[in-house]
Structures are given as C-alpha cells and as structure tokens.
Amino acid sequence: MNLNELTIKQAYEGLKNKEFTSVELTKACLNRIKERNKDINAFISVFEESALAEAKKADEMISSGKQQMLTGIPFSVKDAIDTLDLRSTGAAKILDNYVPPFESTVISKIRAQGAVLLGKNNCDAFGHGASNENSMYGPVANPHDLTKVAGGSSGGSSAAVADHQCIFAIAEDTGGSIRQPASFCGIVGLRPSYGRNSRYGIMPMASSLDTVGPMTKTVEDIAILMEVIAGSDEKDATTVPDEVPEYTKNLNKKEKFVIGLPQEYFETDGMHEETRKLVENKIEKIKAHTELEVEFKPVSLPYTKYGIPVYYIIVPSEDSSNLGRIDGVRYGMRSKEAKDLYNIYAKSRGEGFPEEVKRRIMVGTYSLSSGYYDAYYSKAQKVRTLIIEDFNQAFAQVDLLITPTSPFTAFDMNGKINDLMAMYLADVFVSPSAVAGLPGISIPVGNDSKNLPVGMQIIAPRLGEEKLLNFASLVENV
Ligand code: GLN
How far apart are the CA of 312 and the centre of ligand 1, in A? Predict the structure, then answer.
C-alpha cells in the first residue's frame, strides 16, 4: 500500500511506530497530486513548500513525544474555507488573489495539532452547485471515470480523498455539498448538526444552513476529526454549548437501533433502479446480520417534496445578502474596465462571479424585495417549519433514518449543466435534512454496473452524531 492511501488512523500508527516520517507521507500525497491534478483538477492551489516545512516540524513534534492524533497528517481544504495567509478563492475569480488575514476555527484546530495543509480544493463557486462545474477554475473529474462529474459542491475534496491525493479533507455542506460528492466518489462524508462546528471563516452562503464537516475514507476517521473540530466558538454565535462527545470511544459499540425507512426517498421520479437496489441490498444485509440489533420501520416524510423549493428560496435569499460584501471595494478583484463607482460594482461582480452565483443573487434579491417577501421568503420559512416537524415526528418513532444519498450515480460532464431543474433535483435526498438542520452521513455501499459508487445516507436527530457514527461504524463493512 502506498503511504498516500492510508487512513488517518493508519497514518497515525505508522508515524507513532516510526515506520515512516511525515515528510515521506506528505511527499507521497504531493506526488499523487502532481501526477493526477491535470486530469482530475481537484486542487486550485497546492502549497508544496509550506506543506513540506509543516511536515518537517511535525516530525520534530513526533520525535520529541508531542504527537497528537493529526500531527503530521496531510489534508486538504475546500477553497470556500479561509486559511491564514494562504490563497482562498472560493473558486470564483473575484477572489482570485484573496489571501485571508485570518483562519477558520475548524482549520485552526486541525493545524494546531500539527496536521499538514497540502492545498485548497476546487469546488462550485462559493458552494453553488451539485456537479463542481460551476467553478471558475474548471470542473473536477470523478476519479472512478474521468468523463463523469465528481459531484458538488465539494467535488475537489471528494475526488482528492477518493484518489488518495490527501489523507482527509474538510469541506462545507449547505444543502448536500459534503454528502452528495462523497457518494459520487465512494468515500465517507459527514454533514454535522447545525451549530455543532464553528462556521467562523467559512465563506458564508446561506447562514441558516451552512455547516462544515469532514470527508474521509472511513467512519472512524470522521469520528477522529469530529472530536478535534466540534464545539462551541465565541466567534460563531450559532454554535451550541453542548459538550463534544468522545465519538471514537463510542464506535462499534453494541446498541439497539430502530431505523426508519422514509418511503418518499425510495420512490422518487428519476431514481435509478440500480442505485435503489444497492441501498436496499445493504439494508437486507444489515437485517440478516445476526450480531446487530436493528429493527426497521417504514416512516413517512410527506413534506420532503417541498425540500427543494424551500431550499431554493431560502438559500438564494441569504446568499444575496451574504455575497453583497464581495464587491470589488471591500473585498476582491476590481474590474480593469471599471471607470466609475457603479461599474466598479457592476463589472467586478459581473466578471468575477459565475452564472449560477449571479442567478442566486438575483433570485434572492427578488424574493426578499418588498411585495414579494411574504409570497416567497416568509412562506418558505413557514414550510421549513413543517419540514422540521416532519422529521420530529419520524424521530419520535425511530433513532435514525436511512435513505439513498442521491437518486443516481455520478452523471456525465455537461450532462445537467444546461438543465437547471435537473441539477437542483440532484439534491432531492440531501437538502430536506439540511433545511431542518440535521446531521447526515454518506457511506459507500458498492458500485453499480458502470463501476460507479453508490452512497447510503444515514440521518440523525439534531446533535445525534454519537449514535449516528456508532451505527455507521457497525454497518460500514457489513
Ligand atoms: N447543490 C446545492 C446548491 O447548489 C448544495 C450546495 C452546498 O451544500 N454548498 O445549493
């Protein structure tokens, strides 16, 4: 096995037992990036020099007995997350030269342990998309088939992990951006509960939905990372004060589970038969596994069908406000064509944002404007409450929900980019729980006949990550 193919746990053990150094591990990842980036395009920036310097420092920490779980482990970060003194573009040209003077809390926590930051992952610009084709730095190809998309918006992160260009990645999920690309690339990705991890330093998209979470090769690695990154933060008032559980200690633990199967998630239009079958096969295997104490129950989430419409009113509305700060004056590149104040705004934003971002800003401005607010934004918020109540009712009967992560596997490059509704509907199974602020994980359950990975989503009640991760660890290899 090549060093870059290791999990966090394996890399930690190898470093501890002096089987290799962090410099060797980091070089293995950097070589893989060099070899593959022209085909896959998972990285917008690679920080070779600083990564090697960090690895050297990590080796010193390890040899002086100061190794922590992430010391010396190379990782990458979605480019919509700010990294101190290191270029962070959000995959939009307007921030092409943006170097943040501060760092997001979750990345600071990881780097404080001596992890090695390899570079920044390509994504849909500011997280807007489900295929990674809305990046102004080119699309990301799926490592399993270069003619297919990697998923989005965190396609660069999922491709980098799946292709072993890093040991793990940190990304953002507003309405599916960690889970859907994880499922397309055959890796594990967790969207945490709203409020569990600090969003300080995450480029804001829709503040009432944005979350930040890990993308890894195993459930155990997710638990390891959550122990490091979760917790309240005075810089993000939406974080909850609840203590962070010892997620790793609670893995593979015998426990009884009642699992809900929401019928609406198995019978949607456009669902691929093979995808459904693979998820159902996994459920059958879990049922047949005698050591697991799992009871399955059919449940109904009737408001699921409003998940996408509600999402596409609330998200653009919040977006239109959040993205207002990136205007060529306070932040970002200024258009060379701009000769007066109006054009500084108009041309800088016109040139610096891709189509989809402009569309969201316009839709959001419209639905927040006087006369339309009640008909759109305010109504969407009311339906959002119904969606939350739907989940509450289900969780009164069951511990967790299982659904496919996506109705289909990775689609063709250019396959949906000109069909807006089709692209938005790609998130049909991942956006309702995001609207409700719930945690969800995607784990791989096998490949279809085209050899493309299929993901299964497990959703938990808010702050139910402990039980969620235990269940995921128990069924991961069933
Ligand atoms: N595909 C969704 C969107 O375009 C999800 C984005 C996200 O989670 N960042 O809004």
Answer: 10
pLDDT band at 220 (very low <50, low <70, confident <90, very high): very high
* Encoded tokens for 71: 């010391």
219, pLDDT greater than 90: yes
pLDDT digits (tens, 9 = 90+) for 94-108: 999 999 999 999 999
Check whether 466 has a pLDDT greater than 90. Answer: yes
Single pTM value for the model: 0.98
Closest Cα partner for 354 from 202, 128, 122, 96?
Answer: 128
pLDDT digits (tens, 9 = 90+) for 13-43: 999 999 999 999 999 999 999 999 999 999 9
| Token pair belonging to 18 | 């002096």
Q: What integer pLDDT is reported at residue 331 of this predicted model?
A: 81
Looking at the CA of residue 80, tell me the nearest atom of ligand 1.
9
The string of pLDDT tens digits covering residues 339-377 is 999 999 999 999 999 999 999 999 999 999 999 999 999
C-alpha angle with apex 126: 125 to 128, nearest 5 degrees?
Answer: 70
Strand segments, DSSP code E, in 129-219 are 141-142, 145-149, 168-173, 188-191, 211-216
Q: How many helices (H) and strands (E) does the chain have?
A: 15, 13
Q: Which tokens sit at 450?
A: 């085209």
Task: Enumerate the H helices of 41-127 as residue ranges.
Answer: 48-63, 105-112
Question: Strand pairing of 453-459 and 400-404?
Answer: antiparallel
If one counts every other C-beta atom within 10 angstroms of the C-beta of residue 370, the result is 6
Residues with catalytic roles: 78, 153, 177
Mutate to test the pocket of ligand 1, among 153, 154, 170, 322 (most ligand atoms within 8 A of CB): 153
Which fold does the domain 3-250 belong to in CATH? Amidase signature (AS) enzymes (3.90.1300)
Give the Å distance between the CA of 85 and the centre of ligand 1.
Answer: 27
DSSP, res 441: E
Q: Which residues line ligand 1 (CB under 6 A)?
A: 127-130, 152-153, 172-177, 205, 315, 427
Q: What is the mean pLDDT of residues 133-140?
A: 98
* Structure token digits, residue 89: 């573009």
Task: Copy the structure tokens of residue 44.
Answer: 């917008």
Measured between alpha carbons, how far is residue 239 from residues 130, 205, 424, 467 in Å? 26, 17, 28, 20
Burial readout 85-107 (b: 16 or more C-beta within 10 A, e: otherwise):
ebbbbbbbbbbbebebeebbbbb
What phi-psi label fits residue 442: left (phi over 0), alpha (psi between -120 and 50 degrees) or beta? beta
- Mean pLDDT, residues 304-330 taken together: 95
Confirm if 449 and 459 have CB atoms less than 8 A apart: no
- The answer to whether 90 touches 78, Cβ cutoff 8 Å, is no
Who contacts 336 (Cβ-Cβ below 8 Å, separation ≥6)? none
Beta bridge partners of 260: 297, 401
